[in-house]
Write a structure and sequence with these properties.
about 110 residues, mainly beta, Udp-n-acetylmuramoylalanyl-d-glutamate--2,6- Diaminopimelate Ligase, Chain: A, domain 1, two-stranded antiparallel sheet, about 40% strand
Length: about 110
């Protein structure tokens, strides 16, 4: 799949974006057990499963991801996460990102 922003996907499908419109999606999936950070999860109903139940169950839950602790805001369904503030420093003979601060439980600043 060619990477697309959530805004591009919403325009193409007539949908709405819940979260940052600039988030890049690189794949689409239907199995919440194998979701990745840049995957668009599509909730499907089947004979023995219902992806909508997963979405409802995830509201208000917290877990640790590769990006740090995250949760789903039960009211808005937006992701709540720690934002890590980094700067580039020379460490040894290499440049690398060095964390110097963080904002825990950060919510989408564009929403009330």
């Amino acid at each position: 799949m060619e990477p697309k922003s959530l805004r591009q996907i919403a325009v193409a499908t007539g949908g709405a974006v819940w979260g940052s419109e600039e988030t890049i999606v690189t794949s689409v999936g239907t199995d919440s057990r194998n979701s990745t950070s840049q995957e668009l999860f599509v909730a499907l109903r089947g004979e023995r499963f219902d992806g909508h139940q997963f979405i409802e169950a995830a509201r208000g839950m917290k877990w640790v991801s590769p990006r740090g602790p995250i949760s789903i805001d039960p009211a808005t369904r937006d992701i709540v996460q720690t934002v890590y503030i980094r700067k580039v420093e020379k460490v040894g003979d290499k440049l690398q990102n060095v964390e110097f601060d963080q904002v825990p439980d950060f919510k989408d600043p564009g929403k009330p």
